[in-house]
Prior knowledge:
heterodimer, A: alpha+beta, Glutaredoxin, 3 helices, B: alpha/beta, Rossmann fold, nine-stranded mixed beta sheet, 17 helices
Amino acid sequence: MPRTHEPEDGWGAIIVRFRLYVAGNMPNSRRAVANLRKFCIDHIAGRYTLEIIDVYEVPERALEDKVMLTPLLSVETPHGIKRIAGDLSDRASLAAAIDAGSLG
Amino acid sequence: MRKTATGIRGFDDLASGGLPEGQTTLVSGAAGAGKTVFALETLVHGARDLGEPGIFVCFEEDPAHLQRSALSFDWGLDAIPETDLWFLDAQSDLDMGRSGNVDISGLLAVLQAKVLQMGAKRIVFDAVDMLLREIADPNIVRREVYRLRDWLLKMKLTAIITAKVFNTTSAQSGQPSMEFIEFMVDCSILMGHQILEGVFQRNLRITKYRGSPHQENETPFVVGAKGIDVAFMHGMEKPHASVSSERLSTGHGQLDDMLNGGYIRGASILMTGYPGTAKTTFCAYFLLAACLRGEKSLFVSFVSREDEIVRNLQSVSIDLQPHIDSGLLRMVSTRALRGSAETHMLMIRTLAHEHGATCVVTDPLSALSQSGSPTINGPYVAERLIDWAKSEGITVMCTSRLDDAEGADEASPTQISTIADTWIHLSYDLALGERNRRFSIIKSRGTSHTNQLREFVLSDQGVTFRDVYVGAGEMLVGSQRWGRERSDELALREQEAAADRETARLNGDISKLEGGIALLMAQLETKRAEAATLTERTDEQVSDTEQTRDKMRDLRGG
């Protein structure tokens, strides 16, 4: 759920915090990791953080964070969190999610 | 293939044992059909009764809300610990975006951990159509459903997947097609409802059950306080409570004599008759006897209110009130209009169970047949009631009105009368401008019974049977009987009077003769006396003469 708040301290140069939930070595998950990495290098190098969580290894995190579909990308910007499910092959929606956050 | 019980009344019988163990069952139906209740009840039964922990995955409803609603069933849901029954909130996140291909690995990872942790044996995916809608792409949907199925098989879980079906085709409504799921599962159940003649009736149908013979017909069910109750009548396979030979008093001494002691315990008694023929009175006698034995009994009336019934019976010297007050007798009245035959059937069973009744009266049973869908469920429901009572060892008495009056062909077998053990028919005999009450035992299994009609009188003292009157080879009742009795009596008196007269006359003759004899005897005596006197005198004369001669000789002598 998006929550809006004023940019808090600690963001600085970072404009987005990614948390990517993957399902081990599943094809979709591999693609998601690859796609995200490429996107970040291409567009927001040095301005993001990335945490990768394997739902198979830490299922309790998946439960806690309500991760039913994988891969699941949580995009946290100073203005809120947006979640995207899928292998991130659609760059447009990924960009939109980040932009929507950073525009605030 | 092994089966595992759902614990749902009637269903396990319908499915000859339950659901396929370790396999997936699809339960589909429109919204509100009862899919969630079915699935949840199965899970609860496993967790609470069979030591099989279960997981309930909610795709549509908030689990907390579901659990709160489910408290209205008396399953003891809140007493089941989370380690035995666990709910997962898998509702879709409406704000979530999509980018490319997804799979359900996250879900399976979470579930896998839980299954291993709990040792879960059963699992439900409720409203899986919501998940599939979220996935959207039909190819992905198909792939993920197979992934799910494979996972379930691997984990050896007995699973229920519920899904809504819609009337429109999936293409029109935009819903993912469910048909392939049907092909994929081993067992498929369709739940629905219909409205027949204004009455709402739920039903379900096992549309598929691989490797198992199953009932293919639509079977009615109700949702009551105990959950789902499926109206399945299990023919003759199910063993009834052991056959008893104990006799229960009918509540009326004369009737007990007619029935070799009374009704057999666990038997079914059908009492038919036109309205006003005293059916309820005989039911009351039966209940009275039960209460006097200290047994709990139940009276369900579809006709009158409890207080009216009690009052009416009091006018014929049957007082049920003290037994109602003591708690032995439970009286319930309801109108048959308000629900389906199945609903009433369920109500009767529930009431009987709650009360612990061993004797049950339904007045009239025909109310069940007339409500609901008469053409399909009517007599079927009645048979089930009697079947149920027998399996519980409950002695059940049902009344039934006849649609036609006097002269009804008692020999024509209605469905109910065929299976009832005892069939008593009450009627009026119309003759000489008056009605006389008749009581007839048409049949009574296990009892040699009088074949005769018995006349009875219903007064403020209750029922009194009259002795059978057989005059000149025909049985008479009522004033015909009275008339004939009377004329017979008169004839007898006439005979006696005539005999008296005759006796008197003979006595007169005898007297006369005796008198005559006496007279002759007197004359005889007189004559004899005369004769005796004459002889005496003659003797005297002779002796006199001799004496004189002797004397003269003496004087002349000389």
